[in-house]
Amino acid sequence: MALTEDEAARLRDARPTGPAPQPATEPIRVQRRVSSRGQIAIAGQRIGVGIGHAGTTMTVEAADATFRITHAGQVVAEVARTTTKPIARFKVRKPQR
């Protein structure tokens, strides 16, 4: 149900809407902490990066069809994306002891 011009004019603190948000042109970057078994989880997909990286924080670039995992500027892995779930967490938090 839309408001008429008279009803809209009587609304208190009403402001015109701005432009619609534009979709991102670059891939989404998120952080993940590697588990003690050498795996990360992103959008419901588990990715093995190697037990040698256990405990480190990786940067994951999520494109349409791939995940690119980097650490200190070097590409560790690039895997196909097998899930369509949205990414819910963007920053990693160090576990509390």
Rg computed from alpha carbons, rounded to a whole number of angstroms: 21 Å
- So what's the overall shape? elongated
Structural class: mainly beta
pLDDT < 50 runs, ≥5 residues: none
Strand portion, in percent? 25-35%
Q: N-to-C terminal Cα separation, in Å?
A: 53 Å
Write down the overall mean pLDDT.
88
Q: What is the H/E order?
A: HEEEEEE
For the largest sheet, list the strands in their spatial order: 1-4-5-6
Q: What profile does the largest beta sheet have? A: 4 strands, antiparallel
Helical residue percent band: under 10%
Give me the count of strands: 6
How many alpha or pi helices? 1
Overview of the molecule:
This protein has 97 residues and is mostly beta strands. It has one helix spanning 5-9, and strands spanning 28-33, 39-42, 45-48, 57-62, 66-71, 74-80. The chain is built from one helix and six strands. Helices cover 5% and strands 34% of the residues. The strands form two sheets. Strands 1-4-5-6 form a four-stranded antiparallel β-sheet, with no helix packed on it. It has a two-stranded antiparallel sheet with strand order 2-3. It has a domain at 26-92. A hairpin with a 2-residue loop joins strand 5 and strand 6 (74-80).
